[in-house]
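Sorry to interrupt, but I need a hand with the structure work. Leave the record below and I will have a look:
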Amino acid sequence: MHLIGTDHPIQDAYDKATGRARYAGDMTLPGMAHIAMVFSTIPHGYVTAVDDSQAQAMEGVYGVFHCFNTPEYRFNRYRSQYSQELPDEEPVFARHVRFVGDRVAAVAARDMETARRAAALVKVEYQPLPAALTFEEALEGKNCLEGEEAIKLEYSQEVGAPLPEEADTVSVTAATELSRLHHAAMETHVCVADYVPGADELTLYSPNQSVHGVRTVVADMLKMPYSRVRVVKTTMGGSFGAKQEWTTEPVAAALARLLRRPVKLVYDRAAVMRSIVCRAPMRAEMTMKFRRDGTLLDIHLELLSDAGGYIANSADYVRTLFGKMFRCYRIPHGSIHVRLVSSNTPVSGSFRGWSSPEVALMLEHTMEKAAKALDMDPVQLRVKNVLLPGDSDPKSGLPIEEVRTRECLLRGADRFAWEENRRADAAFNAANSRYRRGTAVACGGHGNTYYPRYKDFAGAFMRVCEDGSVQVEVSIHDHGCGTGAAFQMIVAEALELPLDRVRLKEADTAHTPFDFGCYASRGTFLVGRATQLCAQRLREELRAAAAQKLGVSPDVLFFQGDTVRSKDDPSVVLSYKDIAWYSLSELCQEITAEEKYHTSTNPGVTGAHFAHVEVDTWTGLTRVLDYLAVHDVGQAINPAMCVAQVQGAAQMGCGAALREELEISSSGMGTSSLAKYHLMNAPDLPVIQVELIQDGCSQEGPYGAKSIGEVSYVPAAPAVAAAVNQALGSDMGRIPMSPDRILEYVAKEGC
């Protein structure tokens, strides 16, 4: 391979570094209206009146829209597939508001300053209702209307059969509580909608994770044919799950159609933190049963989750969480009991890893307690129980293939000087009264596709241009991490072309094949495989056209770079350009290829993270001293991109473990500023060391690749949290382990 496995910058690195990259927020269309939102200021109640007279009187205001003067457009923000049967629970403009930040009204004006000034003049009257802001209040049904139940979903499930009772076993139970998290993507939520009245055509430009998912929701909401709604995925400045649910797109679409002109809706940081989605708060109690030798026998999980103001994806999220429990360890029998409540707080939604990081926090916290109860080294306990090559995922029934979790643990322990660090920590702690140090490890697993939960497929189309370069149509959704470059490399590798001879754009419902979107870590694994196969098919079309030109059998022709040569005649050298010109002029056709591909596998993709921390027991502050992440990725398409993904994920996980929390005040107001949401920044951390294990290739991924974008985040917070507990000799299960919580523990325990 001449490109796969080598380091390359992301496809738009130059444009981003020089400020030339064009985001949706940079777009300006003729006659465009700018939109400013009016959000609910109470957590629960009814809008009884909207006085928009002052706003309407302002020069440059095109209109004020709210529940009393617009059609009752309704949608489901989580719906991403045409076949999903989900209730349209959410109106574009709410009369029954369910949280502080619910959409109440919107002002359209000639510029953003005018729109925002006018929005501040809109007066809304409410009839308040009792609100539930905590788990306890939601469980009591404090916010329930007549006929509503406090528990929105309750279910139990098990995988495997309980093993016969054994006399000498050890049971360990650990309680874990997870906070709400903000995604903190650099780019906020934006949508530009362009409506053409005469043709009744609507085009949406937004940084989203599924152009076809957006089209499904918007077209059904507006009762428009899908063929008249076009969605274009724009350059994205990060998502981490926040841009795979639809909040700005339905609003912009509805207003563009009502105004019969283009509109742009841009959320500022406060609006994103209040009104988009956050990671769900959860309370969990996990019980593990082991033999005395450390063999894991059984896991049971009691889970309580809060959906926030709307159910959105929460019912699906907690169901998916149980499946993710089986992606790392051999679990003969696992069971779960889930309760889902809905409170009057920000809506819970998709977050990087889609429940894998949450269940990893529960698993790894319990595993740490088990290591102490069994008097076993934490690395060795995990090595004894991880999935091995030849094993199957007990829930899906699929082979886990060449999984390398064991190697991640052993190689990581050696490189991180595991035993030496633990001994040094013990000596340091014995000699210090203020600072305490701890070293810990955590594992995590994830998937590569929807399969087998859904039949998952992808398509690609390619054409050879007149100059021999190649144009690719494939529905990729780059989050800003360089997926486009990876796909260029896949195509260029298959066709033996330089990277600059392969051109591709991102997903566009008018031009690229149908695709479910960037979910379930399916992008490179599945869509990339379709792209690889399409490129190989295009190569054969080139060979066939060359054979016709030469009047020979295709079998005597071979490729060397971007040329076709003959085994029988060394003087024969045809460039891709020569072949393209011949096909156009003599065969009267372009050289094209199309591939439709569906997967039948979902191999194991895992990693092990090692963290070394120092806790200041006087201030409660924790400093990460050293960090190593070892990941089983199969063949890395672009290793530099994989390393960057892991480093970013580790930084994100350190923040989740130690600092980040979207708090809710007694009035229902959530944190709405990064000044009060304490992100972990790169200067706060040491250099994140990364090692990629690449010999556990997948059967179906392009060139053996597996996923990395989500699994890289899964073990991060559990490793740091375990290191803090190791430092303090504690069993804290509430995340984040903020300075206040650490000081509260120190004061209580006297350590």
Remarks:
- Residues 523-550 form the longest helix (28 residues).
- The mean pLDDT is 97.
- DSSP finds 18 helices and 29 strands in the chain.
- The first strand starts at residue 33 and ends at 39.
